[in-house]
Specification:
Shape: elongated
Distance between the termini: 41 Å
Structural class: alpha/beta
Strand order of the largest sheet: 4-3-9-10
Number of helices: 17
Radius of gyration: 26 Å
Number of strands: 15
Strand content: 5-15%
Helix content: 40-55%
């Protein structure tokens, strides 16, 4: 298995610190608002990575934190006239609902910043003792960036270049404009915790350093996050953690690609900002997940109505292959032989190459074509092949619905007719055919097809699927 390492800017053989086990930390959400499409991208990307590592036999300890104390949280709670706890608990519940609808498995552990204040204070004390941090006379504590010789290595930046090209707020309490805050003194009325430097709360960067090392140790295998976190957040995490422990912080750094909307950067100012629940109110969650999986995790994704339409068509092809096949226990568990095992081997090869999901899906589409062929020629083999397809889908978090449920579009809003109306049309068509009124039967079929409702006749009767026109 090879994984692209953001730190070294190349694919590297993956060898975990402990044989058979993987320790992974991913920066989670700051819970002051509903999760957006960028969050969905990270959720799904590292869910697929976790699923695949487990499929390969690794015991994965996947830690994804929650930032539940932050300037944005304080501001939003004040605007809403609610307590910080009420706001964060409400947003955490919403986040869990969103990820469940996207078929994202819960992480192994989900530490919260407010649950690790003692660990954060202890790490800051260590940094002060080692000369990497200092307490200012205003009650804040800052990190001495120039003290850490390797600062900038994740982003390949030089310190002087950062200072020349940066917009750093003037702060008379800092020794150097590039220094960043580890502990913030509390303003009157703000939430706070006691510390050796007075009442205050942690800075954002130190939270992840403390939570990750507490949960996974001083050094762990993989650290992941969104594309916007490489600088300064992850750069600061490295500086804090390695200065405090004297050890390599992370062996492999992974970052998901950005989400663009109609080829533009997603932002509230452009009016193209979508929360996960906004999207799922109008589109099938599995279609949204397919769109997120269809691009390589490091590549940008373009979100648009057209891209979702194509995603639904592609997913429909896979479910159509599974339709009408009764899977036995062995088949359903992917215990397939013959050609199916060959597809599984190819699937593994491409996923071993930095989790190449586009190529993995290409293998699945080839297998789906083989399933369709076997339906006509070798029904028993079709079941084994379909079981293999369903099992490969599960590795990507796909194809876990009953095929007919998905194909009828019952989870998608916007169908032009209700299910009962469609069945009534089918009954009218059957009656027309019985009366040998084939022109009327064809007209009903064409009418439904124009609405995206495709009829399929077989010996068992007439079924239908909805494909958005």
């Amino acid at each position: 298995m090879h994984i692209y390492n953001t730190l070294t800017r190349r694919k590297e053989p993956f060898t975990p610190l402990e044989a058979g086990k993987v320790s992974m930390y991913v920066c989670g959400m700051t819970v002051y608002d509903y999760c957006h499409l960028g969050h969905a991208r990270v959720m799904v990307a590292f869910d697929v990575i976790t699923r695949y590592l487990r499929e390969r036999g690794y015991d994965v300890n996947y830690v994804r934190n929650i930032t539940d104390i932050d300037d944005k949280i304080l501001k939003r709670a004040d605007e809403n006239g609610e307590s910080i706890t009420a706001l964060t608990e409400r947003m955490i519940d919403a986040m869990h609902e969103d990820e469940a609808r996207l078929f994202v498995l819960p992480p192994s552990h989900e530490p919260r910043a407010t649950g690790h204040i003692d660990d954060i204070v202890a790490m800051i004390e260590t940094l002060i003792e080692k000369g990497f941090a200092y307490a200012a006379d205003n009650g804040d504590v800052y990190y001495r960036v120039r003290k850490f010789a390797d600062y900038g290595k994740l982003n390949n930046r030089q310190l002087d270049d950062m200072r020349a090209g940066s917009r750093v707020d003037v702060d008379v309490h800092k020794e150097d404009p590039l220094d960043f805050v580890l502990w913030k003194a509390a303003k009157p009325g703000e939430a706070h915790w006691a510390s050796p430097w007075g009442n205050g709360r942690p800075g954002w960067h130190i939270e992840c350093s403390a939570m990750s090392t507490c949960c996974l140790g001083d050094t762990f295998d993989i650290h992941g996050g969104g594309p916007d976190l490489t600088f300064p957040h992850h750069e600061n995490e490295i500086a804090q953690s390695e200065a405090a422990t004297g050890k390599t912080y992370v062996n492999t750094w992974m970052h998901a690609g950005a989400v663009r909307v109609n080829q533009e950067k997603m932002s509230k100012s452009l009016g193209n900002f979508f929360t996960i629940r906004d999207v799922l109110a109008e589109h099938d969650p599995e279609v949204v997940r397919f769109l997120l999986v269809a691009s390589h995790y490091r590549s940008p994704i373009n979100y648009s109505v057209d891209s979702l339409t194509e995603a639904r068509k592609s997913l429909t092809r896979l479910y159509t292959a599974l339709e009408g096949i009764e899977l036995g226990d062995a088949d359903a568990n992917g215990d397939a032989s013959g050609d199916a095992s060959a597809y599984r081997e190819r699937f593994t090869q491409v996923m071993d190459d930095d989790f190449n999901t586009p190529e993995a899906l290409a293998v699945m589409f080839e297998l789906a074509r083989e399933v369709n062929r076997a339906k006509q020629e070798q029904p028993n083999e079709a079941a084994r092949l379909a079981g293999g397809l369903k099992q490969l889908g599960s590795v990507l978090g796909l194809l876990q619905q009953v095929p007919q449920t998905f194909l009828k579009g019952t989870q998608q809003q916007g169908m032009p007719l209700s299910e009962s109306e469609i069945e009534a049309k089918i009954a009218q068509r059957i009656e027309a055919k019985t009366n040998k009124n084939f022109a009327q039967a064809d007209a009903i079929r064409d009418e439904l097809a124009a609405l995206g409702i495709i009829l399929k006749d077989s010996r068992e009767g007439t079924s239908w699927v909805f494909e958005a026109p």
